[in-house]
Amino acid sequence: MKKNPFFVFVSIIALFSLVLSACGTEDTGDEFYTEETFTEEAFTEEPATDEAATEAPAQQSGAPGDVVFDFGFNPADNGFSFENYGDDIPATNLTADELRRMFGDEVCADINGDECILTPPAEQWMEQVNGDMAGGHCEGMAVLSLMMYTGQVSASDFGGNLASELDINDEALQKEIAYWWATQAVDPTASSVIKGTPMEILQTIEQMDVNGETYTIGIYNDRGEGHAITPFGVEDKGDGLFAILAYDNNYPGEVRELFVDSRDNSWTYETSINPEVATDVWSGNADSQTLDLTPTSARLETQTCPFCEGGYSSISGKLAAPSQALNQIFLDGEGHILITDDSGNRLGYVDGKIINEIEGASYSKYRMLASGNTPEPIYSIPSNLDVTITIDGTELTEETLTDLMMIGPGFSIGVEGIYLEPGQVDVAYFYPADETIAYETTSDESPSIIFGIENPNAEADYYFELYGTDMVGGGTITAWLDSKAGDLLINTEKLNGEGAFNFYLTRITDELEEEFTAEEIVLKEGALVYINYAEWTDANPEGMYFGVDLNGDGEIDDEYVVDDSQ
Questions:
Q1: How far does the chain reach from its first CA to its final CA, in angstroms?
Q2: pLDDT, tens digit, for every residue of 109-130?
Q3: What is the pLDDT of residues 24-78, one digit of tens each?
Q4: Buried residues in 240-263 as b, exposed as e (16+ CB within 10 A)
Q5: What is the mean pLDDT of each run of 10 residues along the chain (566 residues)?
Q6: If you write DSSP's letter for every residue of 270-293 in order, what string do you get?
Q7: Is the distance from CB of 452 to CB of 128 less than 8 angstroms?
Q8: Backbone torsion region of residue 128, taken as left when φ is above 0, otherwise alpha when ψ lies between -120 and 50, otherwise beta
Q9: How would you classify the pairing of strands 425-431 and 387-392?
Q10: Which pairs count as long-range contacts for 9-14, CB under 8 Å and 24+ apart, including other chains?
């Protein structure tokens, strides 16, 4: 890799000073930073304090205007020539091939030759993550450009010698960008993120030539928006001010500067969703924890599969397993959510800020800035928790289509198609161990209730969708799977009126994928509907059995067989 001659000179002087110190020369008070100084443990165990903000680490030596570190990356050559993009172009994001590459064959319910048919939870997870990329692909672009520069990924695989020569319209390149973007949503990448004060972040970047690690920078504003850039140098601006030189994929070909002021341990960065939109100044300090670094090495490790049965992935015989099984919670839409466990502990937005009171829970903010519409973070909670989730539209200015999904090892469950209006507050109750969800609203809604289950030791995997569910006047609808009995049940005891719903099923085996559709199934107030899905296959000419308990006494009052209406 190309090294700046001045940086080499500075390194030699620093080494010479260290030798003199070892021989008993007088201590000058200057601090020499070794590779060990910049380990993750050195500055992630305790949050920054006010003292850290006022007593900043020692400054690098150098005169104003000197580049005290240069990794050799040139945005004009090594960055992409196109801007960061969201859903403004018809891009291809993750496919089954990328999920299989990231997590292994466990993501496939069936493999036919080179074709992987995803398990229902895998399909749902991919849909959620791809949907979140609508806000921008900066994370993937920041990572991939850096890896092409270091030779960890070859630009020639995508039709050029340098990143700057590649075409955004190349589908293979789009999928590669999406692949590296998605690593921010899984471990060990997500749990390897290094937080620190602005000066600690700067000094770690200066060590990239020393410790062999490379990083992308995550920057965040006070609105919860995140952006990813690629650092490659540090310049001394004089009077304790430094600039981290970076490639920002919102500004192709430009050298951008993130300013770090060692006098008060603060940072500022002027950015925009693209060069045609007015810029916005983001800033933070030692206490705000609004800068972080993601080491590239973590992205190259086997990633833990959050939706695989057993909670692990297997690639080339290696296993990656979480220390604790977790369920991930996704919200699509412009509202916010607040997750509450049975003890009243909360995770999510309270008074415009994210709080976390649930032991073992965490959240990951996306880095993506292209559209200005940053989605809700991914929330992770211990898999044994039952939770109540409030879907809050009080800050909305217009109606937004909203989906809420929980995805965990071997399952996905959620509610989609909520038309959340300004001021509307709905509630969803998740009981993952019992494969149960209840959705409560005071508005007229027709949501879809979604289930996906992976059954590695059974005959088939299943995806269910109850859609077009009439909830005129609101109320509560509860649905749950009884996997042992092979029934899907719908409880309308707390509905405020009668309606109907449509039913869709996909059944996936090692040999085939089958579908069943039933429309306009009567949904009576106070009834319990049984759908006996386990007895159905395409080869069964008699259709699917439905039973109805009209008064909730446990006795079937009405039963009928529904034909496939496809």
A1: 60
A2: 999 888 999 999 999 999 999 9
A3: 333 333 332 333 333 333 333 344 444 433 344 444 456 677 889 999 999 999 9
A4: eebbbbbbbbbbbeebbbbbbbbe
A5: 39 37 35 33 39 42 79 97 92 97 94 92 96 91 98 97 97 98 94 95 92 93 87 96 96 96 96 65 94 96 89 43 78 93 96 92 77 75 96 93 95 95 96 95 91 86 89 86 90 75 91 89 81 85 85 82 79
A6: EE-SSTTS--EEEEEETTT--EEE
A7: no
A8: alpha
A9: antiparallel
A10: 10/61, 10/62, 10/68, 13/61, 14/61
At 145, which amino acid appears?
Answer: S
- Contact call for residues 495 and 471 (beta carbons, < 8 A): yes
Is 328 within 8 Å of 363 (Cβ atoms)? no
- Alpha-carbon distance of 128 to 408, in angstroms, equals 13
Question: In one letter, which amino acid is 13?
Answer: I
Taking the C-alpha atoms of residue 533 and residue 44, their distance in angstroms, rounded to an integer, is 50
Task: Write the DSSP string, 189-202.
Answer: TGGG-EE--HHHHH
How distant, in Å, are the alpha carbons of 96, 107, 323, 452, 519 from that of 309?
A: 17, 9, 15, 12, 31
Task: Give me the amino acid identity at 252.
Answer: P
Helices (H), 94-214: 96-103, 120-132, 138-150, 171-182, 198-205, 208-211
Q: Tokens in use for 344?
A: 């009243």
pLDDT digits (tens, 9 = 90+) for 253-292: 999 999 999 999 999 999 765 556 667 899 999 999 999 9
Under DSSP, is residue 487 helix (H, G, I), strand (E, B) or coil? strand
Cα(294)–Cα(484) distance, rounded to whole angstroms? 43
Count the residues in the chain: 566
Q: Going by DSSP bridges, is the β-strand pair 326-332/400-408 parallel, antiparallel, or unpaired?
A: antiparallel
Could you tell me the pTM of the whole model? 0.82
Q: Which two tokens stand for residue 178?
A: 């999406």
